[in-house]
User: Fold this.
Amino acid sequence: MPQHNTHSNEYWEEIFDSIDMDYLPLEYINLIIVEFKDGKVWEIDVNQSQKEQQDVDNVLDEFFQEYEDQIVNVDFRLNIDKLKNDISKRTKKFMKLNR
Assistant:
């Protein structure tokens, strides 16, 4: 089996390209950048807000429902280090269990 350099960007880009982003847990999001039709840009620091996960989910749902007509773009900034670490751990565990 070929060895991969798990620290290279190419390795992780290939993995991230294959991930279905229809559902992305908040624990992997650092920042949400919302651009409005009037040119305003809001940055929502999810790390600051993650004390109560359920509350953050509800607040974001309400926010997007209330402002959906006015939003032009939403950009999510991910905690790539946490994502890489969790994928690596789960992959190793999966590989050990399926030998």
Summary: The chain has one domain: 22-97.
